[in-house]
Amino acid sequence: MSPLIILATLVIIFVIFGVMEKRKHNRSLSSIPIRIHINGTRGKSSVTRLVAAGLRAGGIPTIAKTTGSAARMIWEDGSETPVERFGPPSIREQISVVNKAAERGAKALVVECMALQPDYQFFTEHRFVRSTHGVITNVRADHLDVMGPTELHVAAALSNSIPRNSKCYTTEERNVKPLRWVARKLGTELCVVPVSDQDREDAGRFSYIEHPENIAIALSICEDIGIDRSTALSGMLESTPDIGALKIWEIHFFDNRLYFVNALAANDPESTLLAVERAKTAVSSEIRTIVLFNNRGDRLSRAKQFGDFLATDLNADHNVLIGDVTKAVEDEAIRAGLPAMKITNLGQARPPEIFEKVLDLVDETALVVAIGNLGGLGGSVAAYFQHRGKPLGSGISGPRSHN
After folding, report:
1. Of the ranges 85-89, 177-181, 262-266, 296-300, which one carries the lowest mean pLDDT score?
2. Helix (H, G, I), strand (E, B) or coil at 185
3. Residues 103-118: pLDDT tens digits?
4. What is the structure's pLDDT at 147?
5. pTM here?
């Protein structure tokens, strides 16, 4: 058999396989009446979990998939397993997720968008998910190398996941114009969800620091589907948080008491500032705050970005720098006006040494917030602190007494 005939045969087989796969996928989509695709800069994993929990509480067989800090499949009973991969992450895995949900008879599927490239975001929504409810949690200045250079460009990129002839939910207000324009073009209703005082009050009932914006979006979707607020919220309160969720760990060490918060998953300055502010509110607005900033060597552009941020926005009592190229972060922070006496540069020190140095900076009580990036030293240092404390329970949104 000639090479040309072999090639032609392979092409025909490939085309037939593609047609069969597409038909199967379309049948799977048709069998799942509620499909929710969640995109945005921050909060995607949390909103995915909250929406799925609310739907389950309302009696709807729901399967969810998160991508965030650790990709998970969340099943109809709320149990979860890691996403199985036999290579690097690919948006094509959303096809198998849809098929798996259809095979199990799920009536709702909630998936976190796993694409960064604008074209891939479009393809994921309009080919793989075709959602009945879309979500763009917010628009922040992150992944500017892919979606930037400005927040408006990020908004335009994220709008690629807005569904056609459906509904799309967001709490974004500052950069909402590109979202409105695309939604109108697609015949979709853009629902800008306000955050109410009730949402803020309910946030204090979670066993971790949950953002009121995430709760507002999740409840709005559940209510649109026909699940009352009380029922949906009860399911959300009982759900398992994402591994990257903000939790407060209380650490007692001799006469010192530390409250440790791992905010390493908040990669952009705006999300990081919000995480630090909510951590301070949860513990005490008057508490001494120590920031533990981890920098990755492959994120050199962030040395300047976060150096400025430490100096001009964060206003911590002390800043401990760890990880790679920390001298660049230190130089930038000092240039931006941060006093050198408020900086301790530990670079690639080991977690026990970092822990001991932080203790030296504590005067009886302090809030220690780890920010920057989970990569490199970040994850191991956070684990070291957490293993020496215990997580605080529910009701952590109110100020705490230190008497």
Report:
1. 296-300
2. helix
3. 999 999 999 999 989 9
4. 87
5. 0.77
Q: Alpha-carbon distance 115 to 227, whole Å?
A: 30
Contact assessment for residue 114 and residue 132, using Cβ atoms and an 8 Å cutoff: no
144, 269 Cβ separation under 8 angstroms? no
Residues 188-193: contacts with CB within 8 Å, 24+ apart? Answer: 188/134, 188/162, 188/163, 188/164, 190/162, 191/167, 191/220, 193/169, 193/217, 193/220
What is the rounded distance in angstroms from the CA atom of residue 224 to the CA atom of residue 227? 7
CB atoms within 10 A of CB 153: 18
The reported pLDDT for the residue numbered 129 is 95
Token pair of 37, please? 């695709």
Rounded Cα distance between 194 and 199, Å, is: 9
Q: Residue 48's CB: how many other CB atoms inside 10 A?
A: 29
Are 371 and 345 spatial neighbours (Cβ–Cβ below 8 Å)? Answer: no
C-alpha angle with apex 110: 83 to 104, nearest 5 degrees? 70
* Block residue for tokens 């800069």: 41
pLDDT digits (tens, 9 = 90+) for 137-184: 999 887 777 887 889 999 999 999 999 999 999 999 999 999 999 999
pLDDT value at position 402?
A: 33
What does the alpha-carbon distance between residue 275 and residue 281 come to, in Å, rounded to a whole number? 10
Tell me the C-alpha distance between 323 and 346, whole Å.
Answer: 8
Q: DSSP readout, 3-53?
A: HHHHHHHHHHHHHHHHHHHHHHHHHHHHT-SEEEEEESSS-HHHHHHHHHH
Please choose, from the candidates 325, 328, 324, 320, the residue with its C-alpha nearest in 3D space to the C-alpha of residue 304. 328
For β-strands 256-262 and 248-253, DSSP reports them as antiparallel
Joined together, the tokens standing for residue 151 give: 């927040």
Q: Kindly write down the DSSP assignment for every residue of 221-234, as one continuous string.
A: HHHHHT--HHHHHH
Q: Where are the alpha helices (DSSP H) in 31-125?
A: 44-57, 93-103, 118-123
C-beta of residue 155 within 8 angstroms of C-beta of residue 139: yes
Contact 371, 260 (CB under 8 A): no
> Would you state the structure tokens that stand for residue 339, as one six-digit string?
């006093």
Tell me if residue 122 falls in helix, strand or coil. Answer: helix
CB 61 within 8 A of CB 106: yes
Which pLDDT does position 398 carry in this prediction? 35
Q: Which residue's structure tokens are 């000639």?
A: 2
